[in-house]
């Protein structure tokens, strides 16, 4: 193995070391019984960040399989980062810089610590680890509006949470984090569903907290089933086998 490839592998393994490459299940999360298909009134499939699919993308194949089970009762909802339907345009085409900026602005990858000049040009592989590590610190002093540290972002988040808290919905679904997570909610929502790995190419580290019911760094999506008796069942589906790896009653009990 070449030295550069070995270094890249080591960096990726360091990232994976603090992430759930195997599914995490909270020990006290009760298992759910899967109902018969005849019990289904409506199904909503939640998939996020599916804007850069590979050829024969496994996630989309699994999604098609699930959507085809009962198509008249199924709705597919794409959550975030799906506006670039054909990927980033070529550098000589209009909209390239803007599209690239939309994708790169919230990211700070391991290679940016060592090669920060790549943010000026993708070919500038100049090793500057000290300067690179200073970048996120400087960025934190005056963060872009989409960063968590931004006062504008915090103000928007507080306003949104305040509005949600007035009615406290059952589900708040998002797709920005590139992983699969099911979280117990708070005053703003009863459950938080993060379904943000609609493309096998994308992955971000994921861990768990006290409110985590399930977490996994794996491509997939989520199915929310409303049954005829009024109960609501969540199922987390992963690509490859299109199998359910986690199920939980969101409303009602088995």
Which terms summarize this structure?
254 residues, alpha+beta, Purple Acid Phosphatase, chain A, domain 2, five-stranded mixed sheet, disordered N terminus
Question: How does this structure look, described?
Answer:
The chain is of the alpha+beta class and 254 residues long. It has a domain at 20-30 and 37-105 and 169-251: Purple Acid Phosphatase, chain A, domain 2, CATH 3.60.21.10. It is 26% helix and 25% strand. The protein is built from six helices and ten strands; from the N terminus they run αββαβααααβββββββ. It has helices at residues 3-16, 58-67, 96-104, 110-114, 129-141, 151-165, and strands at 24-25, 40-48, 74-79, 171-174, 180-186, 189-195, 212-216, 220-227, 232-238, 243-251. It has a five-stranded mixed β-sheet with strand order 1-7-5-6-4, with no helix packed on it. It has a five-stranded mixed β-sheet with strand order 3-2-8-9-10, with helices on one face. β9 and β10 form a beta hairpin. The longest helix is centred in the middle third of the chain and has 15 residues, at 151-165. The chain is globular, with a radius of gyration of 20 Å.
């Amino acid at each position: 193995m070449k030295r550069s490839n070995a270094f890249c592998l080591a960096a990726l393994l360091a990232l994976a070391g603090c992430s759930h490459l195997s599914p995490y299940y909270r020990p006290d999360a009760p298992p759910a019984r899967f109902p018969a298909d005849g019990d289904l009134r409506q199904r909503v499939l939640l998939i996020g960040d599916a804007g850069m699919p590979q050829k024969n993308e496994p996630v989309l194949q699994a999604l098609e399989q699930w959507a085809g089970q009962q198509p008249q009762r199924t709705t597919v909802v794409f959550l975030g980062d799906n506006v670039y339907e054909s990927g980033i345009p070529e550098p000589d085409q209009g909209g390239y810089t803007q599209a690239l900026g939309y994708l790169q602005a919230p990211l700070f990858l391991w290679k940016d610590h060592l090669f920060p000049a790549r943010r000026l040009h993708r070919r500038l592989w100049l090793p500057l680890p000290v300067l690179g590590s200073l970048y996120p610190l400087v960025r934190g002093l005056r963060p872009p509006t989409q960063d968590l540290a931004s006062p504008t972002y915090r103000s928007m988040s507080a306003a949104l949470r305040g509005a949600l808290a007035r009615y406290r919905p059952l589900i708040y679904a998002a797709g920005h984090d590139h992983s699969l997570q099911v979280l117990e909610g708070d005053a703003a929502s009863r459950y938080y569903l993060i379904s943000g790995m609609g493309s096998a190419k994308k992955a971000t580290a994921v861990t768990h907290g006290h409110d985590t019911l399930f977490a996994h760094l794996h491509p997939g999506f989520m199915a929310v089933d409303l049954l005829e008796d009024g109960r609501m069942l969540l199922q987390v589906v992963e690509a490859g086998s299109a199998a359910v790896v986690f199920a939980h009653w969101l409303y009602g009990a088995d």
